[in-house]
Automatic annotation (TrEMBL):
HAMAP family: Adenylate_kinase_AK6. GO terms for biological process: ribosomal small subunit biogenesis; rRNA processing. ATP binds at G10, G12, K13, T14, S15, R110. Interacts with uS11. Not a structural component of 40S pre-ribosomes, but transiently interacts with them by binding to uS11. InterPro entries: Adenyl_kinase_AK6, P-loop_NTPase. Keywords: ATP-binding, Kinase, Nucleotide-binding, Ribosome biogenesis, rRNA processing, Transferase. One of its GO terms (molecular function) is ATP binding. Its EC number is 2.7.4.3. Belongs to the adenylate kinase family. AK6 subfamily. It comes from Haloprofundus marisrubri. Residues 109-119 are annotated as: LID. It catalyses: AMP + ATP = 2 ADP; ATP + H2O = ADP + phosphate + H(+). This is Putative adenylate kinase.
Length: 180
């Protein structure tokens, strides 16, 4: 079973999924995109890489196996995390959420520049990643997890619950427009 963990940069994907590495396979895609050059061009203005999703998907399928039809195969779980992970086929999609002002602070504390932190704040307030995830996978496969007041350990527990099938799909439960 493939569970993808996506969300605006700063929502805590890397921190939470790192806590799951002893119990299932975890692929941190952003490292691979950079190291294996799964990108087509560099967006200088936004200081980011434009990813070749087809090339990335082929590599993930080759390296970790395809998303299985058996969505209840909880014994053989691969977690794929990245803010692009929802663009890949998946059995379940976890979308981490964070209140945009808190997200901006986390990114600034992490050393991101103000423009990038502000751009991601706006993206989170507008539900950009959630909307893309629902469009790709449908509402029945999307699980939002609030991380604003949660520790990475608590977020990891929420991801475990999605993997175990103990959590109902939840898309659109979060509204951050006032933080735009
Ligand atoms: N649950 C959390 N609560 C508070 N801060 C967090 C949490 N998860 C991550 N962080 C911090 O926020 C920043 C972004 O976390 P990170 O895991 O890199 O997010 P992402 O992988 O989604 O970009 C890091 O500095 C990290 O220490």
């Amino acid at each position: 079973m493939r569970v993808v963990v996506t969300g605006t940069p700063g929502t805590g994907k890397t921190s939470a999924t790192a806590l799951l590495e002893d119990e299932c396979t975890v692929a941190h895609l952003n490292d691979e995109v950079r190291d294996r050059e799964f990108w087509t061009e560099r967006d200088e203005e936004r200081d980011s890489l434009v990813v070749d999703v087809e090339k990335l998907e082929a590599w993930v399928d080759e390296e970790y196996g395809e998303a299985s039809d058996d969505a209840d195969d909880a014994d053989d779980v691969t977690i794929v995390e990245s803010h692009l992970a929802h663009l890949l086929p998946a059995d379940r999609v976890v979308v981490l959420r964070c209140r945009p002002d808190v997200l901006e602070s986390r990114l600034l504390d992490r050393g991101e520049n103000e423009a990038k932190a502000s751009e991601n704040r706006e993206s989170e307030a507008l539900d950009v990643i959630l909307a893309e995830a629902v469009e790709e996978h449908g509402v029945d496969s999307v699980y939002e997890v609030e991380t604003t007041e949660q520790s990475p350990e608590a977020v990891a527990d929420a991801i475990r619950a999605v993997v175990a099938g103990d959590r109902e799909p939840s898309a659109g439960t979060v509204d951050y427009l006032e933080y735009l």
